[in-house]
Amino acid sequence: MEKKHFFDKPENVRNLLRALYAVCALLIVIDFFIPKHGYILFENAPQFFAAYGLVAYITIVFTAKYILRSIAKRKEDYYDD
After folding, report:
1. Would you say 52 and 44 are in contact if contact means Cβ atoms under 8 Å apart?
2. Assuming Cys at both sites, which of 16, 18, 36, 71 could form a disulfide with 44, CB separation 3.0 to 4.6 Å?
3. Three-state secondary structure along 3-72?
């Protein structure tokens, strides 16, 4: 018999996602109360680093998907040659 994994049960996955969402929400709320001392004026804005990280992530994904894929893409019969 195959051993059951923790993530095989849907309720475990659901509880883990709820915990993740709760931690994310808590971090967003806490960020409003932490004093910021940035070098540049807009670094002091609430959720600046979260927005900056999101923009960086989206940029990296789209760069890899559209630009790097066109550079590194091979023909379908690459291994047949």
Report:
1. no
2. 36
3. CCCHHHCHHHHHHHHHHHHHHHHHHHHHHCCCCCCCCCHHHHCCCHHHHHHHHHHHHHHHHHHHHHHHHH
The SS3 of residue 76 is coil
Residue (of 27, 29, 7, 3) closest to 16 by Cα position: 7
**Is the Cβ–Cβ distance between 27 and 49 less than 8 Å?**
no
Start-to-end C-alpha separation, the chain: 44
* Cα dist from 21 to 15, 25, 65, whole Å: 10, 6, 28
pLDDT in tens, 19-54: 999 999 999 899 888 888 888 888 888 888 889 999
The pTM of this model reads: 0.58
